[in-house]
Amino acid sequence: MIDKAEPAGLLRTLFKSKSSHPLVEFFRYFVVSGASFVFDFGLLYILTDKLHIFYLLSATISYSMGLIVSYLLSVKWAFGRRSMSNKAAEFGIFVAIGLAGMGINALILWVWTGLLGLHYMLGRAVSAVIGYAWKYVARKLALFK
To answer: Within 10 Å of residue 143's Cβ, how many Cβ atoms?
Structure first.
């Protein structure tokens, strides 16, 4: 339930209280995705521009690290209910969904940068929006019913 009686109650519901309300979970997953995206995006920039690692390899590394950040924040905070008791299996499914997202990410980056010659950071931003939608729906249905 969302406590709308006062602004402090709403903030408490959105940020602190345990909740499995779909709108609260969607909001929290958006925050989690934003945090993991900032981590991923920053690491991508450092690996590619500062360490001169090929952008597709950098994107794979940074995406993988962002996936771990996303998992930890999702299970600890974003979703109020977990549908699996086996944490290893849960993480495996979370990663499988993330790997599908990584494939989408790589394809978009390749088309954006490799074929169209546009900047890789803009391509990563486009792939983030598409990937967010895919991963939220897939993870909600598979892991956090």
So the answer is: 21
Residue type, 120: Y
What is the rounded (10 degree) CA torsion for 43, 55, 47, 39? 0
The model's pTM is 0.76
CA dist., res. 136 & res. 27, Å (int): 11
- The rounded Cα 138 to chain-centroid distance in angstroms is 12
Is there a contact between 22 and 83 (Cβ–Cβ < 8 Å)? no
More confident residue, 52 or 120: 52
Whole-angstrom distance, CA of residue 84 vs CA of residue 47: 35
Q: What is the pLDDT of residues 35-52, one digit of tens each?
A: 998 999 999 999 999 999
Q: What is the pLDDT of residue 2?
A: 54
Q: Is the separation of the CB atoms in 36 and 67 below 8 Å?
A: yes
Instruction: Count helices and strands (H / E) in the chain.
Output: 5, 0
Has residue 141 got a pLDDT over 70?
yes
Q: Which residues, at least 6 apart from 17, have a Cβ–Cβ distance to it below 8 Å? A: 3
By the 8 A CB rule, do 60 and 80 touch? Answer: no
